[in-house]
């Protein structure tokens, strides 16, 4: 509340005293000429940033400057809402999702569609030129009324917005609340994944029956059984001395040789002296090679 | 042209003349194979009944005074459409009655002849049906009281002619000849149709009475146009130059067809047309001049080609072409010649039909052999045929007192009566024609009936010997009747201007001619020249035996005559080939142009869709790019609207 | 300087966000660009509310923020669940609509 009062004072100070028609003072001009290019820079940065997270951050810059512009334009409520809700909530949501999902998939430089960039640039310039030109021409003689009278009467900006919201735009308000509920429910539905319930969990009996129907009724040797060393990565040896395939760790096997060199040396006996209780034999010595 | 009254009494039944043969045709065609036993008898019966009625009507009309002889029978309103009001009615006047008698009389004789001639054919019933159809259409042609009804009959006889020429469907030359006849007739029909259109445009009517009464309203240009176009129609139907090529080819049909259609009746329709339209021709000397020229040219062409052919029927066909040339020349002379043309028409109908039937009899006896070089000395074996044929021959070459003398002679005299150079030219051509006619007919006589019997050493087409025999009674009796006609009819009709007087209500009075040469001299000249022709033919062909194979090394005139004086070659070069090129060009345009357009559109669509689908890359970012592009376009459009 | 300058700034930010959506391949970064676009629009709303002299624009901006929050929650959950199944957060990997 005090923050809001602060903002209102700031807004009042930026306006000339008791204006009849809307005039733009130097404060506003300076604000515009700083914030405008800033928001443009943020937009351009968002456009050209290779990393998606950088894009989001540039957009945050744009939104913040827009929020301030709103405040400068005698819309303090909207400005704060922009900063709190839009930038603070929505953009953060974007960043969360980016972290979860889109961080690795960054756009490559090469454009797949031929001429897309050129066409987009041309069309963008054309569109901008068209709209800017028509707006500039259309509004040459329009006088701005200004919100001073509205903001200063009937409880200020917030109160007036509130009263409009709950009288003139009540139906729309109710609709948007329905929309929000729907969006929340929809998000929950979409995000729900049946991670643990892919079909029924097998009971103990079913697991045992499957095991006995298969080709190996006994349980698999755990890691390190029959191991000749303490490393979990050591493969188990069968009674005849060969390596049990089931105990090989896929992760270890794919690990590069250099990183395993020490372990290999330890197991094969070329490095440290093997344990006194280890079974010696040509088979185990050969395995470490 | 005398006024016409409404038909009454016996004349009011004149529709029977059309209905009886039409009924016969319908029954015979629809009854199918059940009628095979009695079909030919029904076919003959209808025509004989029509002839009987025609005779009765004739005598009734004869009993009336000359002013009452023209009557019209209104049957129904045929095409009442806006300004055009065509009625379907019959005009019973001396000219049409003459033709009725000719058609039904000669027609019934030929029907009886066909019973025997077509006895061994399976489709005899259909043959009679077509013949009946022909007679019905021809009667409509001559009886119709307007040009459109005439055109109806005109087309009908064209159809029947096509059906009958192509009777031997399995023979390619018969089918081709039928098509050729139809197509060349069509060219002529075009002229007739356009003439009717002009009549309607200028006068608003096509009925005879109205048109002929208001002939003075037409400008001389339209009269000339109408006369020339009617002449074109007549040329097509009567086989005159330049449309004469179909008539010899039409001999591919059975002989009764040649006799009836291509000698006596259908080919005379052109003469009828010109005679009927005489009020128009009276007012157009230039039109008449063209008619005369066409007649004279055809006359000579027929003679020249007929001298070199070896096919019996084809020679007679060219003879027909030539004689009709005489008739056309006669009606082209104007009021001095209309009745003379009709006279020659009637006489020609008799003796030419008789000649054709005789040819058919000979061919029937000689196993359908038509090449005269393979005949010879048949007079002994076919006496009746020889006698009747001989009488017809004498009539044709114009030996008095046979009918041809009177009719041809009158025409030659009238031709000489033309003023100035025309008299000499046309009269001279007619005389020359008489000489040439005598020549080629005598050649025919010598090679077929007299001389050495060359066929004794030859075999037929299927390897058997020839056994020429006389034809059965059903064939000889009609020939005898026609021979009697050939003998007597000319003198009978010409003496006392009987025919001319009878035809006066229809054709106007026959004017006397006073030519450069008077009648007696003309008569002596024509007979003399005919005898000269006979003598030359005897000298060339009568003294030594004729070779069976036609000599190939002949002089140019003979070669040209054998090639129809290059008439067919001309037709082919001028019309057939360009026509084929045109259709080929159109096919090319269709294939490349139209198909190319259609297929090209399909290919375009296919190709473009193949390219366009590459837009669907599947990448979200390219879709986003197009969305941004779209947004820019919309924005731009809005701004343009806003700031314009 | 007029309030129009804020509008121009917002237009520039918006187009930068649009270009970012087109160019970046990491799904989350694309999402952040969308957030940038929303912020630009918010700025526009606030400026207009100032120009009109009424608080409607600010209330609208407030609602935009609420909706953006809900949207971010759901969107990030979706991205996370996709990442779990496909192990990739690249936007280019979902290209099954390719011809």
From TrEMBL, chain C:
A Pfam family reported for this protein in Swiss-Prot or TrEMBL: Oxidored_q2
An annotated GO BP: ATP synthesis coupled electron transport
Main localization (coarse): membrane
Reactions accelerated catalytically: a quinone + NADH + 5 H(+)(in) = a quinol + NAD(+) + 4 H(+)(out)
Job description of the protein: NDH-1 shuttles electrons from NADH, via FMN and iron-sulfur (Fe-S) centers, to quinones in the respiratory chain. The immediate electron acceptor for the enzyme in this species is believed to be a menaquinone. Couples the redox reaction to proton translocation (for every two electrons transferred, four hydrogen ions are translocated across the cytoplasmic membrane), and thus conserves the redox energy in a proton gradient.
Protein family (similarity comment): Belongs to the complex I subunit 4L family.
A GO cellular-component term linked to this record: NADH dehydrogenase complex
Membrane-spanning parts: 6-23, 28-48, 60-83
Places the protein is found: Cell membrane; Membrane
Protein name (Swiss-Prot/TrEMBL): NADH-quinone oxidoreductase subunit K
Cited NCBIfam families: PRK05715.1-2 (NF004320), PRK05715.1-3 (NF004321)
Molecular function terms from GO: NADH dehydrogenase (quinone) (non-electrogenic) activity; quinone binding
EC class: translocase
InterPro entries: NADH_UbQ_OxRdtase_chain4L/K, NUOK/Mnh_C1-like
Topology with respect to the bilayer: Multi-pass membrane protein
Oligomer and partners: NDH-1 is composed of 14 different subunits. Subunits NuoA, H, J, K, L, M, N constitute the membrane sector of the complex.
Keywords: Cell membrane, Membrane, NAD, Oxidoreductase, Quinone, Translocase, Transmembrane, Transmembrane helix, Transport
Origin: domain of life: Bacteria
UniProt KW Signal keyword: no
């Amino acid at each position: 509340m005090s923050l809001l009062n602060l903002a209102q004072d700031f807004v009042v100070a930026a306006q000339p005293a008791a204006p009849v028609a809307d005039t733009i003072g130097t404060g506003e001009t300076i604000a515009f000429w700083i914030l405008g290019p800033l928001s443009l820079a943020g937009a351009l940065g968002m456009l050209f940033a290779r990393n998606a997270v950088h894009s989001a951050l540039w957009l945050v810059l744009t939104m913040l400057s827009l929020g301030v512009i709103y405040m400068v334009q005698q819309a303090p409520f909207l400005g704060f809402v922009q900063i709190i809700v839009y930038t603070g909530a929505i953009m953060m949501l974007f960043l969360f999702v980016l972290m979860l999902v889109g961080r690795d998939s960054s756009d490559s430089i090469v454009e797949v569609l031929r001429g897309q960039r050129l066409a987009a640039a041309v069309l963008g310039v054309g569109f901008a030129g068209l709209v800017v030109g028509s707006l500039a021409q259309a509004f040459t003689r329009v006088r701005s009324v200004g919100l001073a009278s509205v903001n200063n009467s009937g409880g200020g900006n917030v109160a007036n917005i509130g009263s409009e919201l709950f009288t003139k735009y009540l139906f729309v308000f109710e609709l948007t609340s329905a929309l929000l509920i729907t969006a929340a429910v929809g998000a929950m539905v979409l995000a729900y994944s049946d991670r643990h319930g892919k079909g029924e969990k097998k009971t103990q009996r079913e697991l045992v029956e499957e095991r006995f129907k298969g080709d190996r009724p006994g349980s698999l040797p755990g890691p390190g059984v029959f191991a000749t060393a303490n490393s979990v990565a050591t493969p188990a040896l069968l009674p005849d001395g060969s390596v049990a395939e089931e105990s090989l760790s896929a992760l270890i096997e794919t690990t590069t040789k250099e990183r395993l060199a020490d372990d290999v040396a330890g197991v094969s006996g070329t490095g440290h002296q093997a344990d006194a209780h280890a079974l010696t034999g040509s088979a185990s010595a050969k395995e470490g090679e | 042209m005398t006024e016409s009254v409404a038909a009454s009494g016996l004349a009011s039944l004149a529709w029977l003349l059309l209905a009886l043969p039409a009924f016969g045709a319908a029954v015979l065609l629809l009854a199918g194979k059940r009628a095979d036993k009695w079909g030919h008898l029904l076919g003959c019966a209808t025509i004989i009944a029509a002839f009987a009625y025609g005779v009765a009507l004739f005598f009734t009309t004869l009993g009336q005074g000359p002013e009452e002889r023209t009557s019209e029978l209104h049957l129904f309103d045929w095409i009442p459409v806006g300004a055009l009001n065509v009625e379907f009615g019959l005009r019973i006047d001396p000219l049409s009655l003459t033709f009725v008698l000719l058609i039904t009389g000669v027609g019934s004789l030929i029907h009886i002849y066909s019973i025997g001639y077509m006895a061994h054919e399976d489709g005899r019933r259909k043959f009679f049906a077509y013949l009946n159809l022909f007679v019905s259409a021809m009667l409509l042609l001559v009886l119709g009281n307007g040009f459109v009804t005439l055109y109806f009959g005109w087309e009908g006889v064209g159809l029947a002619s096509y059906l009958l020429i192509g009777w031997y469907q399995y023979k390619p030359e018969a089918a081709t000849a039928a098509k050729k006849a139809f197509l060349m007739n069509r060219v002529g029909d075009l002229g007739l149709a356009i003439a009717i259109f002009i009549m309607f445009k200028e006068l608003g009517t096509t009925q005879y009475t109205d048109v002929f009464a208001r002939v003075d309203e037409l400008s001389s240009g339209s009269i000339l146009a109408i006369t020339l176009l009617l002449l074109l129609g007549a040329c097509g139907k009567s086989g005159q130059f330049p449309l004469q090529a179909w008539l010899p080819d039409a001999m591919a049909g059975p002989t009764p067809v040649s006799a009836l259609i291509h000698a006596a009746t259908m080919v005379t329709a052109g003469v009828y047309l010109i005679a009927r339209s005489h009020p128009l021709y009276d007012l157009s000397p230039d039109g008449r001049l063209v008619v005369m020229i066409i007649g004279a040219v055809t006359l000579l062409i027929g003679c020249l080609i007929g001298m070199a052919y070896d096919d019996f029927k084809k020679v007679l066909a060219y003879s027909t072409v030539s004689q009709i040339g005489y008739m056309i020349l006669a009606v082209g002379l104007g009021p001095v010649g209309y009745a003379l043309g009709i006279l020659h028409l009637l006489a020609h109908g008799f003796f030419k039909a008789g000649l054709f039937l005789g040819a058919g009899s000979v061919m029937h006896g000689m196993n359908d052999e038509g090449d005269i070089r393979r005949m010879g000395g048949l007079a002994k074996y076919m006496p009746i045929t020889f006698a009747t044929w001989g009488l017809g021959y004498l009539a044709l070459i114009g030996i008095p007192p046979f009918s041809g003398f009177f009719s041809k002679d009158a025409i030659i005299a009238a031709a000489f009566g033309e003023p100035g150079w025309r008299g000499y030219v046309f009269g001279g051509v007619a005389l020359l024609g008489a000489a040439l006619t005598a020549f080629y007919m005598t050649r025919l006589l010598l090679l077929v009936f007299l001389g050495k019997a060359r066929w004794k050493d030859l075999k037929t087409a299927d390897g058997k010997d020839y056994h020429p025999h006389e034809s059965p009674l059903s064939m000889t009796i009609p020939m005898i009747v026609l021979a009697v006609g050939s003998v007597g009819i000319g003198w009978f009709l010409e003496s006392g201007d009987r025919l001319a007087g009878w035809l006066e209500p229809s054709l106007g009075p026959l004017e006397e001619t006073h030519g450069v040469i008077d009648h007696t001299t003309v008569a002596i000249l024509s007979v003399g020249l005919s005898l000269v022709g006979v003598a030359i033919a005897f000298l060339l062909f009568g003294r030594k035996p004729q070779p069976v194979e036609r000599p190939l090394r002949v002089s140019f005139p003979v070669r040209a005559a054998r090639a129809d004086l290059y008439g067919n070659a001309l037709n082919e070069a001028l019309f057939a080939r360009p026509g084929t090129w045109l259709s080929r060009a159109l096919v090319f345009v269709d294939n490349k142009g139209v198909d190319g357009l259609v297929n090209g559109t399909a290919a375009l669509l296919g190709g473009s869709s193949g390219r366009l689908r590459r837009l669907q890359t599947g990448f979200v970012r390219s879709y986003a790019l197009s969305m941004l592009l779209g947004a820019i376009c919309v924005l731009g459009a809005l701004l343009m609207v806003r700031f314009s | 300087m007029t309030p129009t300058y804020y509008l121009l700034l917002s237009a520039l930010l918006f187009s930068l966000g649009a270009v970012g959506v087109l160019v970046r391949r990491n799904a989350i970064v694309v999402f952040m660009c969308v957030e940038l676009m929303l912020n630009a629009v918010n700025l526009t709303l606030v400026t207009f509310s100032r120009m009109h002299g009424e608080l409607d624009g600010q209330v609208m901006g407030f609602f935009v923020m609420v909706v953006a929050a809900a949207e971010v929650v759901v969107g990030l959950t979706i991205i996370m669940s996709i990442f779990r199944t496909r192990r990739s957060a690249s936007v280019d990997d979902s290209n099954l609509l390719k011809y």
